[in-house]
Specification:
By secondary structure, the protein is mostly helical. Helices cover 52% and strands 10% of the residues.
Length: 164
């Protein structure tokens, strides 16, 4: 089943919750054929400017190093294909990294058949979580009056209760 990560945009001053929900991005974790075939164009299309800059610098240095070593054309092609394969596999990770750098909040992972089902599943869980009462923080003791007996640690539910 496909896996999606859910990213919320940074809040705006004029955002109401309905508009913010429309701007959520679901990034599918899969091999990106377009990133594999056309890495620089794919990065421009997705506005991954820093990733594009790092890609261009790394490929330039790699090809210059291969040229300096006197590598043959097939070796250069294989190295370029391996880098393209890496970009294809890590394309969604580059998107998540860029979104995180821009201040987007990662709300977790959703497993669903398609993006529409992932959205439905995520927002159903989101609404259910918002409707639930807030639990006391871990380690917080509930309010007790002086008349309440102290808590019991052991096998019996009440102090001095007879064994069954």
């Amino acid at each position: 089943m496909p896996v999606y990560t859910v990213h919320e945009p940074p809040p705006r001053d004029s955002d109401d919750p309905a508009d913010a929900a429309d701007r959520f991005i679901f990034v599918r974790d899969k091999f990106s054929m377009w990133a594999f075939l056309f890495a620089p164009l794919w990065m421009v299309w997705r506005r991954l400017w820093l990733a594009l800059l790092l890609y261009v610098v790394a490929m330039t240095l790699l090809q210059a190093a291969l040229w300096a070593l006197g590598a043959s054309t097939p070796v250069k092609f294989i190295v370029g294909a391996l880098v393209a394969l890496l970009i294809g596999f890590e394309g969604p990770t580059l998107r998540r990294w860029t979104l995180a750098r821009r201040g987007w909040i990662n709300h977790g992972v959703v497993v669903a058949d398609d993006e529409e089902s992932a959205e439905r599943r995520f927002f159903d869980a989101w609404i259910a979580r918002e409707a639930r009462p807030v639990a006391a923080p871990a380690g917080a003791m509930p309010y007790r009056s002086a008349a309440d007996p102290p808590p019991v640690i052991g096998l019996f539910p009440e102090p001095q209760s007879p064994p069954r």
